[in-house]
Amino acid sequence: MPEGPEIRRAADRIAEGIVGRELVNVRFGPTRLEPYANELIGARVESVRPRGKALLTRFDTGRVLYSHNQLYGRWYVVAAGKPPRTGRSLRVALETESKWALLYSASEIELLDADAVDAHPFIAKLGPDVLDEGTPPRVIAKRLASKRFERRSLGALLLDQSFVAGLGNYLRSEILFFAGLHPSLRPCDLCDEQRTTLARLIRSITKRAYTTGGTTEEPEFVADAKANGEPRRTWRHAVFGRADAPCRRCGEFIERIEVGSRRLYLCPWCQG
Q: What are the TM regions of this chain, as residue ranges (predicted)?
């Protein structure tokens, strides 16, 4: 499933293509939404913004399109009249004279009134978005120390969208590695300095993934790996997806475990 950085990059692409432009045609795959297509023709797209792993597309009519990619959804932004060659099922088409924003294969799509967005069942449960400017490390650190979250294992907490929205499986492994923390630890097991460092890394690692297109490894390691001709899969992440490969910090072999029925990668030495 795409995580916060990937959803924000998708929002950026869609916004660049259609924000401020008038919709000349709208198509919906779900039959329950078909009656609303004509309502949006002639509307202008005001913004496209992520909320955690969801996207909110606002129109000047007061409507908001809510979409969640889940595992298989994907947005394409293409030149008008040139849809991608794909076997996926078209779910939403927002067409302007010059650009089309097309959503394929997503299962969660709704058209909401703007004043109903915050009450949406998914949106209402979200914590602060990890990539929002209004979510600095001090806000995350405060949540780590709160009664609500302090006794949750870090392995579970970092996937809980009510803690901070936008984190996912690869980010969980990478954040815990760079923090030097085992996933079984809880915020209440950490000292203030460790919580502060963890909060900073939750923000900075996610931001690095956003700016680099999914790479979380530190730039100097990436540069060395590229210079040595290593393929991207070996240097994109420090631990995620690298089971049985040596840790670049200590040389110990990286392990894969299951936490919350999902794979998690760690270095038993660096995070022991």
A: none
From the options 3.40.640.10, 3.30.70.3270, 1.10.8.50, 3.40.920.10, give the CATH code of 137-266. 1.10.8.50
- Other C-beta atoms closer than 10 Å to the C-beta of 148 total 10
User: Domain residues of the chain, as ranges?
Assistant: 4-124, 137-266
Give the H or E element holding residue 2.
none
Please give the pLDDT value at position 1: 64
Q: Is the dihedral of CA 187, 190, 195, 201 positive or negative?
A: negative
Q: What is the pLDDT of residues 41-93, one digit of tens each?
A: 999 999 999 998 899 999 999 999 999 988 889 999 999 999 999 999 999 99
**Active site residue: 249, 262, 263, 268, which one?**
262
The catalytic position among 2, 5, 183, 187 is: 2
Catalytic residue among 8, 49, 51, 53: 53
Distance set, CA 173 to CA 124, 131, 179, 245, 246 (Å): 26, 18, 10, 15, 16
Is 268 known to be catalytic?
no
Please determine whether the domains at 4-124 and 137-266 fall in the same fold group of CATH. no
Told to judge if 2 belongs to the known catalytic residues of this protein, a careful annotator would answer yes
What is the distance between the alpha carbons of residues 28 and 94, in angstroms, rounded to a whole number? 9
The per-residue pLDDT for 72 is: 87
Domain 4-124: which CATH number of 3.20.190.10, 2.60.40.10, 3.75.10.10, 3.40.50.410:
3.20.190.10
pTM of the model: 0.94
